[in-house]
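Long-time lurker. I teach an intro course on protein structure, and each term I like to show students one example going from raw sequence to a predicted 3D structure in token notation. This year I'd like something fresh instead of my usual example. Would anyone be willing to generate the tokens for the chain below so I can use it in lecture? Attribution to the forum is fine with me.
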Amino acid sequence: MKNVEDLLQHFSLSPQEAELYVLLLKQGESNVTHLATLQKKNRAAVYFHLNHLLERGLVKESRVGKRPQYSAQPPGELAAQLERWTADFKSLVPSLESLKRFEDDKPVVEIYTSSAGMKRIYDEITAQPGGSSFFVLEGKAAIKGELALLSDSEWSEFFRRIVERKILTRAVFTDESTQLPREELSKENQRLLSNRLWDLRTLPEATMPLQQLMMIYGDKAAFMIPDTKLLFTLDHPGIVGILRAMFETIHGLAKPLKGGW
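-- Reply from a regular --
Happy to contribute to a lecture. Here you go:
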């Protein structure tokens, strides 16, 4: 019977409850006093475990006079009940799987402030495989705010890494923003900026009244709100795919920047 007791413990029965169920099967019907004597336990402990078995439907209670009698649910009935529960659970599997898919498909949003967030985003961009590309859509206020977030040496490090890894930057800036890198960056960083691989186009600010920054890399999109220096990333293939398609539309309408940086 030890194997039976071990098996019953898989159905959230304690060892004491499994032992008591098997004992009731052997006895057919019994009262608490008799069960306590057979198990060499006090009556309170037997009552405690019997109540759990009653709650789980493994034991039935009847009365002979004022004294309650207990008997085990027949194994055949228990097996039939387990089969019904299994069938009920199987009918719920599609709904439960859809819940899991919803959780897996939920966008992941992370929020950062100031330079630490921007450095992390740049680290992720330059960690892409060599020959990769990323997309930038940016207005004048965002470029000015972005350039102020990192130090001269931090910009140098980012530019060198992106040049060394031959990562292409496909960008659309406003016409009014293209002078800012020449005004804000050191001569060395301007040189590194011009050495990057670019597919750079512009639109008049009247056509694209954009002051914010959007970058797309891999399955992530990053955004910067220059007024608050708030940055956040969104990780979701479907949503980022829509943003990438929107970028391609805007990029196709823009004009190549003559002479580059």
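Some talking points for your students: The CA atoms of residues 35 and 46 lie 7 Å apart. The chain has two domains: 2-73, 108-256.
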